[in-house]
Design goal:
Blueprint (H helix, E strand, L loop, with lengths): L1 H25 L13 H8 L3 H12 L6 H17 L3 H14 L4 H14 L2 H14 L4 H23 L13 H8 L1 H19 L4 H21 L7 H13 L5
Helix pairs in contact: 2-3, 2-4, 3-4, 4-5, 5-6, 6-7, 7-8, 9-10, 10-11, 10-12
Amino acid sequence: MRFQKWVRSSGAALLCALSLGAAEAATGGEPAAVIQVDVASCLAATAADDLDKAATACAAVIDSEKTAKGDLVKALVARAALYARHDQIDRAIADDSRALQLDPTLADIFNARGELWLRKGDKPRAVQDFGAALKIDPNHEKAKANHKAMAREIERIGAQMAVAGKPSFNCARARRPVEKAICANRDLADLDREIYGSHLRVLREAQSPAEAGKIQREQDDFIARRNAGYGRPGFDLKKAMQDRLQRINGVDGY
């Protein structure tokens, strides 16, 4: 009985050994090697600005489960830069975002993605990414410059919003019907403020007191005609104001 069990056991071991031997013979006697994913071809294609080659080479790296984390980040960053150069902004943002998920310490990539958000017109996200880059590296020159520029832009937008829909004069003191009409209409109020601002600009740029006097008289005449014409048949207040703004700024709009 023991002999029969030993025979069965020995036979199973022999069969296993023969199977392993056959497998080694089929592969030249060496164990099967682990396939390595090469990131070099992806980096070379992106550096050469070859979108077609990069599409294949980088996808092989990025889509493989065998790619090391460091190589995956390199491939994503390289492909994102290539997409950005070819104005494929959404794809570039997607790759940079994935790279940052893998390594959230990349100040350069936060700054790069911030610039991409800016190209899309998403200023809040751009500011957020520039700020994130500076938290990682307070001396990051590009991020500092970008963050500073955006801070000024946001301040300017805030100032514009604060006066949006408000004319150049105090509506609480408006007495004339035309002034009340301007205060009641956001577009007219904005037009009035633009006219006033442009008038002050050309007044400052006057080359002589005589020229400044002429500019002021033209503005006074416009106000007088506006006040007298409002409410009369055929008088278009908005058109009159647009014409005045164009006359001040010139044909080129300045």
